[in-house]
């Protein structure tokens, strides 16, 4: 490993050893002749992209956001784990998206700068490069736009564009690394917001989880799942439980909104969800259907973190249409949410199956040090 030794403007660490940026693509990507990383996986062999229905085992994935350089991805990795991105240098992106917790944070609702409590749970970032709508309410359609939300929210990372640029441009380590990641820009150019957003988007889009027990089964290895897990898969795809109609394989989301009437934390009013950004009353209480990839690792569940376990979560769906809607609310509950009356045995098998979606094979390495010299903590 070749290291660069730069003087740092961060007072807590006058010198920081920072390696040259990786020139190889992360696992799951192929390096092209023009130095870009293109996603490659076994789902590429299937032609059918199920945009509706329940998603067959041989369905292809939707188009992923790729084409970033290895250097952009690696720079984004440093930025993701560096608390310098927050207004006071105390929290990083990883504070709410911890790789040890399924790139979520294990909290019902996240905690931001100065202990501010967020209104919703932190969603996982696994396979986020495939998603076309971001945030629980779907108000962003690309990663660059999405990241401005937490970066500049007073309740989350508490930064401002001006302070972020001043901080990063004041750190020689970052000036050198940005010049390495974006070699076509003017040699005297300062770090720009667009470059920051591109690098973080590049890293987030590289978080691929597609080698679970389910995937091995889907690609033809029948023994990857045991009998109980196969029973759970059959229940999941059945027209009684109807799970797969919203959580459509292989991404395990149809990328649409659904009003399911999940309860809020005790004492809190109904979260209007997608009604607000889309100004559509039919979307009151609607939230983006999340992917179920690595769902075993991302408790508690729902936008409000209301349910502590997977068993409690699947029980909600069999308790009856709209049973948890607050008095006085007339929500347009999604028509897939009905009364399947699943037995305890069937619910247990559903949980068995959901756990087969766990795959952290390509978890990226957390840097030993970050270019700012600040302590990595999450």
Defining traits:
378 residues; mainly alpha; Cytochrome Bc1 Complex, Chain D, domain 2; 2 domains; globular
H/E element sequence: EEEEHHHHHHHHEHEHH
The beta-strand count equals 6
Overall number of structural domains: 2
Major sheet: order of its strands?
Answer: 1-2
**Strand percentage, roughly?**
5-15%
Give the N-to-C terminal Cα separation.
26 Å
Mean pLDDT value:
93
User: What does the oligomeric state look like here?
Assistant: single chain
**Which class do the helix and strand fractions yield?**
mainly alpha
Roughly what percent helix? Answer: 25-40%
- CATH architecture assignment name of the largest domain: Orthogonal Bundle
Q: Could you walk me through the main structural features you see in this protein, from its secondary elements to its overall organization?
A:
The chain has 378 residues and is mainly α. It folds into two domains: 3-31 and 62-205, Cytochrome c-like domain (Cytochrome Bc1 Complex, Chain D, domain 2); 213-357, Cytochrome Bc1 Complex, Chain D, domain 2. Helix content is 26%, strand content 6%. It contains eleven helices and six strands. A two-stranded antiparallel sheet has the order 1-2. Strands 3-4 form a two-stranded antiparallel ribbon. A two-stranded antiparallel sheet has the order 5-6. Helix 3 (143-152) packs across helix 6 and helix 10 crosses helix 11. The relative contact order is 0.18. Residues 1-14 have low confidence and may be disordered.
């Amino acid at each position: 490993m070749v290291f660069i030794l730069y003087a740092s403007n961060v007072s807590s660490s006058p010198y920081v050893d920072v390696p040259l940026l990786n020139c190889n693509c992360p696992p799951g990507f192929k390096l092209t002749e023009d130095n870009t990383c293109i996603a490659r996986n076994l789902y590429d062999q299937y032609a059918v992209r199920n945009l509706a229905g329940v998603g067959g085992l041989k369905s292809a994935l939707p188009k992923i956001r790729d084409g970033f350089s290895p250097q952009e991805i690696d720079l984004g990795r440093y930025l993701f784990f560096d608390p310098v991105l927050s207004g006071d240098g105390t929290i990083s992106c990883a504070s709410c998206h911890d790789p040890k917790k399924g790139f979520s944070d294990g909290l019902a609702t996240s905690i931001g700068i100065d202990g501010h409590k967020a209104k919703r749970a932190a969603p996982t970032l696994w396979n986020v490069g495939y998603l076309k709508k971001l945030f629980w309410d779907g108000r962003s359609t690309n990663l660059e736009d999405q990241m401005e939300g937490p970066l500049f929210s007073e309740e989350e990372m508490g930064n401002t564009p001006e302070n972020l640029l001043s901080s990063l441009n004041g750190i020689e380590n970052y000036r050198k690394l940005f010049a390495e990641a974006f070699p076509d820009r003017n040699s005297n150019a300062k770090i720009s917001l667009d470059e920051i957003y591109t690098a973080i988007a590049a890293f987030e889009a590289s978080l691929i989880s597609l080698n679970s027990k389910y995937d091995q089964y889907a690609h033809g290895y029948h023994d990857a799942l045991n009998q109980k897990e196969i029973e759970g898969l059959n229940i999941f795809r059945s027209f009684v439980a109807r799970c797969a109609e919203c959580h459509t394989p292989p991404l395990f989301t149809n990328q649409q909104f659904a009003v399911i009437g999940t309860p809020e934390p005790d004492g809190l009013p109904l979260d209007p969800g997608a009604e607000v950004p889309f100004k559509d009353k039919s979307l009151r209480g609607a939230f983006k259907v999340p992917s179920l990839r690595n769902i075993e690792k991302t408790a508690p569940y729902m936008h409000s973190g209301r349910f502590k376990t997977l068993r409690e979560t699947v029980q909600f769906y069999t308790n009856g249409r709209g049973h948890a809607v607050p008095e006085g609310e007339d929500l347009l509950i999604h028509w897939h949410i009905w009364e399947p009356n699943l037995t305890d045995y069937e619910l247990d098998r559903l949980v068995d199956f959901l756990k087969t979606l766990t795959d952290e094979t390509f978890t990226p390495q957390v840097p030993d040090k970050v270019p700012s010299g600040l302590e990595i903590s999450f």
